[in-house]
Amino acid sequence: MRKPIIAPSILSADFARLGEEVEAVIAAGADWVHFDVMDNHYVPNLTIGPMVCKALRNHGIEAPIDVHLMVKPVDRIIPDFAEAGASIITFHPEASEHIDRSLQLIRDSGCQAGLVFNPATPIHYLEHVMDKLDVILLMSVNPGFGGQSFIPQTLNKLKQVRSLIDNSGYDIRLEVDGGVKVDNIGEIAAAGADAFVAGSAIFNAEDYQATIESMRQNITK
Ligand code: DX5
Ligand code: ZN
């Protein structure tokens, strides 16, 4: 297994102090900053866009920013996020009319590209695009809100996608997003994930560093 990635979702951060919050989780050992973009159209919530991504870069945040697009359509906003300093951009295949084109657009913009699968979205979308993926993100909750419970069926889906990745020979991260906690991260890792988004579990904790360390310990147990 490659070095596991811990990616705190800033959806659960204190938005009034976003720069400090991101600095704090990076100082606490986080690897990526998970940046949830919601449009009140593809998902029933509205969050942040490229200006906030740019503001984090201007604030001095150097860690990879993992932009999770929950928007429809997706293509128009991709160059804006690349320009704003995004490192990884993922989108939901059913939100794009032309999946191959959107993936290519992300890479052409200089970012790593990924597809995101909702709990009930079939993984057959992967069949013809494995060579264009840097990340596959499996949602373990329905997208739109932080603080929901992990859907256990995700474990089987993770195992399926893990073997697809291993058999493909491509270097693709398997990321999981939703309801990831200190006490379930071990079984999620055992199912094949190697990048872990956690919002409420980290930002609602008193001690970010202790929480991230406990997560890492349980991943490798
Ligand atoms: C949900 C978002 C997640 C969310 C995770 O639509 O994509 O990133 O913030 O939050 P927790 O870890 O609280 O489930
Ligand atoms: Zn997310």
TrEMBL record:
<feature type="binding site">
    <location>
        <position position="68"/>
    </location>
    <ligand>
        <name>a divalent metal cation</name>
    </ligand>
</feature>
<dbReference type="GO" id="GO:0019323">
    <property type="term" value="P:pentose catabolic process"/>
</dbReference>
<feature type="active site" description="Proton donor">
    <location>
        <position position="177"/>
    </location>
</feature>
<dbReference type="Pfam" id="PF00834">
    <property type="entry name" value="Ribul_P_3_epim"/>
</dbReference>
<feature type="binding site">
    <location>
        <position position="36"/>
    </location>
    <ligand>
        <name>a divalent metal cation</name>
    </ligand>
</feature>
<feature type="binding site">
    <location>
        <begin position="144"/>
        <end position="147"/>
    </location>
    <ligand>
        <name>substrate</name>
    </ligand>
</feature>
<dbReference type="InterPro" id="IPR013785">
    <property type="entry name" value="Aldolase_TIM"/>
</dbReference>
<feature type="binding site">
    <location>
        <begin position="177"/>
        <end position="179"/>
    </location>
    <ligand>
        <name>substrate</name>
    </ligand>
</feature>
<dbReference type="GO" id="GO:0006098">
    <property type="term" value="P:pentose-phosphate shunt"/>
</dbReference>
<comment type="pathway">
    <text>Carbohydrate degradation.</text>
</comment>
<protein>
    <recommendedName>
        <fullName>Ribulose-phosphate 3-epimerase</fullName>
        <ecNumber>5.1.3.1</ecNumber>
    </recommendedName>
</protein>
<keyword id="KW-0479">Metal-binding</keyword>
<keyword id="KW-0170">Cobalt</keyword>
<keyword id="KW-0464">Manganese</keyword>
<dbReference type="GO" id="GO:0004750">
    <property type="term" value="F:D-ribulose-phosphate 3-epimerase activity"/>
</dbReference>
<dbReference type="GO" id="GO:0005737">
    <property type="term" value="C:cytoplasm"/>
</dbReference>
<feature type="binding site">
    <location>
        <position position="9"/>
    </location>
    <ligand>
        <name>substrate</name>
    </ligand>
</feature>
<feature type="binding site">
    <location>
        <position position="68"/>
    </location>
    <ligand>
        <name>substrate</name>
    </ligand>
</feature>
<feature type="binding site">
    <location>
        <position position="179"/>
    </location>
    <ligand>
        <name>substrate</name>
    </ligand>
</feature>
<dbReference type="InterPro" id="IPR011060">
    <property type="entry name" value="RibuloseP-bd_barrel"/>
</dbReference>
<dbReference type="InterPro" id="IPR000056">
    <property type="entry name" value="Ribul_P_3_epim-like"/>
</dbReference>
<feature type="binding site">
    <location>
        <begin position="199"/>
        <end position="200"/>
    </location>
    <ligand>
        <name>substrate</name>
    </ligand>
</feature>
<dbReference type="InterPro" id="IPR026019">
    <property type="entry name" value="Ribul_P_3_epim"/>
</dbReference>
<feature type="binding site">
    <location>
        <position position="177"/>
    </location>
    <ligand>
        <name>a divalent metal cation</name>
    </ligand>
</feature>
<comment type="similarity">
    <text>Belongs to the ribulose-phosphate 3-epimerase family.</text>
</comment>
<dbReference type="GO" id="GO:0046872">
    <property type="term" value="F:metal ion binding"/>
</dbReference>
<feature type="binding site">
    <location>
        <position position="34"/>
    </location>
    <ligand>
        <name>a divalent metal cation</name>
    </ligand>
</feature>
<keyword id="KW-0119">Carbohydrate metabolism</keyword>
<feature type="active site" description="Proton acceptor">
    <location>
        <position position="36"/>
    </location>
</feature>
<comment type="function">
    <text>Catalyzes the reversible epimerization of D-ribulose 5-phosphate to D-xylulose 5-phosphate.</text>
</comment>
<keyword id="KW-0413">Isomerase</keyword>
<keyword id="KW-0862">Zinc</keyword>
